Structure formats: C-alpha cells, structure tokens
Amino acid sequence: MEDNSIKTQKFIVKYFTEIMIKGDSAKRQMINQLFFNLQKISNQISTDIQIKKFFDKIELLCPIKFVDALREKLLNTSGIEQVLEAIQIDNMHTLDEIKVEVNKYMKDLIEDKTFVVRAKRVGTQDFKSTNIEQTVGGYMLAHNPKTKGVDLRNADYTINLELEHSKLNIITKKYYGMGGFPLGTQGEILSLMSGGFDSTVASYLSQKRGLKTHFIFFNLGGIAHEIGVKQVSWYLWNKFASSHRVSFITIPFEDVVTQIFKDISPSYMGVMLKRLMIQAAQSVAKNMKIDALITGESVAQVSSQTLRNLSLIDKASDILILRPLAFMSKPEIIDIATKIGTKKFAEAMPEYCGVISQNPVTAGSFDRVEKESKAFDYTVLDEAVKNAKIKNIDEVLDDVCEVGTLEVVNNLSSDDTVIDIRQSSDTLKASCTVLKIPFYDLKKEFKKLDQDKTYLLYCDKGVMSQLHGQYLKDEQKFTNIKVYRPN
Length: 487
Hints:
The chain is 40% helix and 22% strand. The protein is α/β, with parallel strands linked by helices. α3 runs antiparallel to α4 and α5 packs across α6.
C-alpha cells in the first residue's frame, strides 16, 4: 500500500448527534444528503478526493495539496459533529503489526510528554481494545526513552486508534464541526438581508439548521449598500452553503420610501416600512415556492422591534416568519458574527436609512396600522416587486462593477498610487506607489491622505474596492477614487 501519511490525508466525518437519534428513515435521508453535499463540495476542490459513506461516518481520502482547503470546508459544513484526521494503514491483523506501525508514526509526538493509548475496534479479532492499548503503550514506552511515561488519567498526549476489521486508523487530529442538520434537509427559506450583524447571523443560523437560504435585499437608494450586501451574502453562501445554488433578489425600494413619506404618519413610518418589506418578500417567496421568511429582528433592540410592533409587522404576512435572534442580546449576536467572519463586513457596511420616524411609536395600535395601511398606494409596492432582479448567488460578484459607478482601471503606470485594502497581510507588488490600508480602516485613514492625488483601490475581485470607494464618494464626497482591477 502507498504511504498515506505522505501522499494522502484521511478525514473521518462524524455525524451531528441529533442526526443519530432520529428515526431510521429521517436518519437515512440526512446521511444521504450530507454525503451528496460533501461529494459536491469535495469535487469543487478536486475530483481526486475519494469519499465513502458508512452508517456512522463518512470518510474522505484527500491528496496532500488539497488538505487545507478540504479541512476548512468540512469544518464549515452543517451536519458534521467532528472531523478527525487520520493515517490509514491496511492489512493489520496482529498486535505486533499494529504496535510497530503506531510507533513508527507517533513516536516523535510523545517525546518529553506523558501519553496514553485509547483504542476502538470493529470486527472479529482474537484480541480486545484493551489489548491494543496495553500492547501499543508498552511497546512505545520501551522503545522511546525520551517519553515521560504512561499516564492513564492526565496524559499530555492521547494516541487514538480505530481498528476496523484489518484497517487501522491512527487519529492525528480532532476538530469540532459546525453541527446542525445537512443543508437541504429542512426545506427553503428567504432571508431579508441588510448586511449588518443581525441579518447575517440569522442567515448563518438558518443555514446551520439545514435550510437552503436565499437572500432578498431592499435597495433604499444606496449603491454602496447593495454592493456590500451582495458581498457578504456571497461570503455566507461560499463559506457555509456552496453545496447548493441559491438566489439573490434585489428589490428597488426608493419609490416605496418616497410614497411612505407622502402617505404615512411620521411616527408609523418605521413599522410601515417593515410591513411593506415583509409583504414584498412574501410575494417573492410564494413565486419561488418558499414557505417561510427569516429576519434578524431581536425583541426590543430598536423601536420597530418591540413585542407589539413585531406583532403589527407579522400581521402583514400570511406565511411563516422566523426570528432566530429574537431573544439574543447585541453582544451575543456580535460574538457569533465574529466567529463566522461577518463582523468586519457588518462594521464596514454603509448605512442608508430611508425612513427615520419622528418620535417612532413603540407600542403601535392595530387599528391605527390598518388605517395607515389603507392610506398607502400599493401600486407602488406592486411595481417594485415587478422590477425585482433575481440572480444566482454564484453570479452576483460578476455584476458588481456594473452596479458601481467608479471608473475601473486595468493597467497601472509608474505615477499611480494604489491602496491595497485587503484584510490579509499581503501587499500588492507593483511598479508604482502602493499603500496598505485594510478596508475596515479606510473610512478613518483616507481623509488623512493627500487629496490632490487620485487613488486606485485594490482587492482580489474588485468587489470591496467598489463598495468602499462608492461609500467614500457617496457619503464623504471624495471624488479622487478609482478601482484597480487587473485584466
């Protein structure tokens, strides 16, 4: 057999605990869906990755050069409780064969440490798991004088072994996965996305629970905001849900906002805006055969999210609205955003508040809302829904530079000044002046620069450059900005 520790890496995927306690039919469906998802994800990385399904796990054999990419995907795939990395050795029939092979691979890891051997086995052998532990432990103790010995209770290092018939797996690393149910097992949902902390975390939680999550964005007039929401929606899909194709829907809401100012009393503008968004979203959801909406609302976080006002908003919908953040505090939400990587997007997201109620009502009246609703011209809302633009999520980044209004430069001259806004420590290598200002510092640092110069913003795809350049142009009135996007 080829040396797997050199040329390939084995991953053992353990199912989320709640999957294993389901009935046989539900369990089988979820395992099959997870297997399908991992097949698709692994093929996106390399068609050389081999994958096998078992009743209690899924195994993947991965060429070494793709190990990091596959590990990251496995840890961000819902339905997985644990991800184990292992060295696989075939044709292990005796304790003597096992002890030699384990020592060969693990001896360096117990140097200057106490250790313990833990073993599990499947199949019919003439020895037990405890015999494996004792034999391997004794052999390694005798052949490694630099170890500090065996400690059965508080060892510095644990050697985990799994013997399946004659196949030995030496577990080298153990990670905890995302948990949740496999994507695609719980139906589809439409997420109202603003791109801030709340809507991104709510979308992540729906993905984690196995829901195929589509995104809908209500454009209140900010080009930079649309670019930002597309970017973070793509990020959530690419990181946690790329096994399924989902949609990104943009609804132009500028005219709806204008009509709100004409028809609605100031204190009820905020509640009415939310109601109209829900009505538009449910219309889109019904056309897409989607049964529910999801929002990032949290009880009492803002005036439109008091219990009474949430009830008023719900009355505008006749399909289910889920609010996974309903009882979370803002620090709790930010903690999750930090963990999943959306915090930096949310912090840098341009704000565009189309409706600011004067003395917003915190406990609105059902009768009053009905009265306000009757005063609104719903032909404007119907027109907005009619003009909705639907894109596959994997295509939204392609049209960002078309959405943005900043000039795109494909070639540099020695007189140019480029600002590399990527978050990574890498800096663009170019024959002109290059400044390193991460996108989350750009708002603060750009105004300190010499404004007699023109600056070209650079990032990997040109998306973040359009977003933050557009924000500097729209909100801070800078006109000396272009985007550098190499051919």
